[in-house]
Each structure stands twice: as C-alpha cells, then as structure tokens.
Amino acid sequence: MIKAVIKQFIPEYHNTKDRNVRERYCVLAGALGILCNLVLFAVKLTIGRLMNSISILSDAFNNLSDMGSSVISILGAKMSNRRPDREHPFGHGRMEYIASFLVACIIFIVGFELLRSSIDKILHPEPVRFSVVLVVILSLSLLVKLWMFSYNRYMGKQIDSTVLRAAASDSLNDVAATAAVIVATVVGNFVAFPIDGIMGVLVSVLIMRSGFQIAKEVADRLLGQRPDPALVKELSDRILSYDGIIGIHDMIVHNYGPGRNFASVHAEVSDDCDIIKIHEIIDAAEQAIFRETGVAMVIHMDPVSLNSPETQELKKLVAQIISEIDPSLTIHDFRITKGQSRINVIFDLVVPIEATPARRKEITSQIAERLRAADPRYTAVIQVDTSFVS
C-alpha cells in the first residue's frame, strides 16, 4: 500500500539522491503520521465522551501529542533542504540530524514518564477493570501504529533518513506500549500481582533504550563517521579510471547531511607528464564525479618518479620492510634526495587510526633502523599519516 501512496504523491520517487525527492518523502511520512494520529484522536475522543471514559480520553490526547514527531519530521525536512547561505556555505543538511535528536529526546521522555507511572502502579496497585470496548479501540490503535512503523521504516531505508527511522521507532514504541496495556487489561483480571505496572516498566525500558540508540546514531553522524566503504570504492574506481592517474591516497570524505558529501584526495601522476593535460583530466574527473555521484570532489596532483630505477628499488625495499613490521601499513609520496654522505628516503607512512603515539614512534624507529642496516647512507624522513576512509 505504501508503495502505491509514494508513487501517487512523489514524482521521480526512485531518484532518492535528489534533495527535493528526499524532502517529499519526509513530508509525506509526516503528513501520514499527522493524519493517522488525528483519526485516532477523533475516534477515541468521540467514544470516550460517549462512554464517559477517562482512560480512553487520555489515550486520545496521547495520540494528539504523538503528532509532535510527525511535525518535527516535516520541519526537519524543510529546513535541511534550504539552500546554502553566507553563514552556512555547506548547506543545512544536518538539520535533519538535529530533528532526529529532538525525536529521540521525545521518545526518551515518554519512556521515562511511563517508567515513573509504572513504578507508582507497582507501589500503589489498583484493580484493572476489563472493558471490551477499550480492548477493541486499543487493538485498532495498535494496527494503525504498526502501519505507521512499517511505512516510516520503509521510507527511512529508501532515503537513508535518521528522522524517519526515529519516527519508526516512536511508532514501534507505541505498539509495544499499547500491546502491554491490552495484555495487562486482559490478564489483570486473573492475577493478583500488579501486571500493568510490571509490563509498563519493561516497555518503558525498551522505549528509553530506543531513544538512546537514536540519539547515539545522530551524535555519531554529527561528530563525523568513517564514510561508507561502497562510496569510497566507487570514488576510487572512478578516479583511477582516468588516463594518467596511477594511484591515489589521503582521501577524506566530509558529510554535511544526507546527500551532501564533500571529498578530497591526492592523485599520483608521473613527474614527467604534461601538467596542462593532466590538469584538464583531473578537472574532468572532478566534474564527472559531482555530476554522477553528487560528491563535490577536490583532487590534488602528487607527482611521483617512475623513471628512476634507484627510486623504484628503494621503494620496493621500504615496502618490504613495512610489510614485515605490519602488513596493514602503506606508504605514498615516496622520493629520495641525495647529499654528499647520505641519501634521504622521504615518504608518508599510513598507520591504523587506533595506533597509539608510542606505537607510531616504535614503527618509524624500526623502519629507520632497518634502512640504515641495508645501507648506512639511508636516512628515513617519515611523515606519519592516518587513513580517514578505511
């Protein structure tokens, strides 16, 4: 059903990398959430008044407050799709993460309030009164919330949206809470202990846990995560497909919100190539990558010596040394300079990001010692790097 709704209301729905399409997904999900909660509110309010039931009326206004997540989804989508301005040259894409964090806070607060009321019910138990009408209404609400969870999760996956995944978790929490009330209402008539309070505590813990997980995911994205390996491979393959580029290193990918990636990389080219020609090739690569992937790429040229047998032999020696020390190590920007009594062996060494300063110093010392053992004239000049993409 949700696929039919998406096709009806979102033109070019399959082009999920387009910012306007992403916005329409979030707005549609938010609008459906508002509509569903309004319908539940109206039905429960009407029946609650007819039956003069406080519990049903309370649940009705709970649905009214549930619209907050949907409103935040819409506002977050609208704000994140605003054009860049002077104060925010990279755009407003991270507003979606902030919106997701607000939803996570709402979820956590709801869970905490449920925990508090559940503990109160355990300490001051009250008899659970069974009502067929209440069970039917809660079952209807549960089915609607299940559908809301389903479409939010589906659309969240389609556009990789943290705010829609947060909305899905919010709906799933409502399902768990409603199911707990139904179970407590039915079973409470047959047991003496306060099952409604116990069920409430269990559900509240799950709700707070989901709120914490959403907040953690959002915080990770705001702090900066390692880029998707598939994206790194795609960018690498595209760059290396151009004539004249023989290698790449020092790739960095920055994310400023969904679909807003900026990247830089050093491209290795022969030191005797036509600089004008290779500059045109790199310009073409940058433009094609942006056009085809949406990633704003800056490529820096790094000349490397390919025609010096001595340099190539020394590079092989260093590569062998570092592979014996740690196979995960790599080198780039390799070159040599000769003096009267020594040969400077200069290169950048890429070490694992988790390597401690002491370990890095130990590795460089071992490399320098082995180079001197091979030839006393060799002096290692090592710049230690860290990979930001692997």
Automatic annotation (TrEMBL):
Q: Where in the cell is it found?
A: Membrane
Task: Please name the Pfam families in this protein's record.
Answer: Cation_efflux, ZT_dimer
Q: Which residues cross the membrane?
A: 25-47, 97-115, 127-148, 179-207
Source organism's superkingdom? Bacteria
Domain Cation efflux protein cytoplasmic spans what residues? Answer: 227-303, 315-385
Instruction: List, alphabetically, the GO terms of the cellular component aspect.
Output: membrane
Q: How does it sit in the membrane?
A: Multi-pass membrane protein
Record GO terms (molecular function):
monoatomic cation transmembrane transporter activity
Q: Which SUPFAM superfamilies match?
A: Cation efflux protein cytoplasmic domain-like, Cation efflux protein transmembrane domain-like
Q: What is its main location?
A: membrane
Record-linked InterPro entries = Cation_efflux (IPR002524), Cation_efflux_CTD (IPR027470), Cation_efflux_CTD_sf (IPR036837), Cation_efflux_TM (IPR058533), Cation_efflux_TMD_sf (IPR027469), CDF_Transporter (IPR050291)
Instruction: Tell me which residues make up the Cation efflux protein transmembrane domain.
Output: 32-223
- What are the alphabetically sorted keywords of the record? Membrane, Transmembrane, Transmembrane helix, Transport
* UniProt family annotation: Belongs to the cation diffusion facilitator (CDF) transporter (TC 2.A.4) family.
Tell me what this protein is called.
Cation transporter
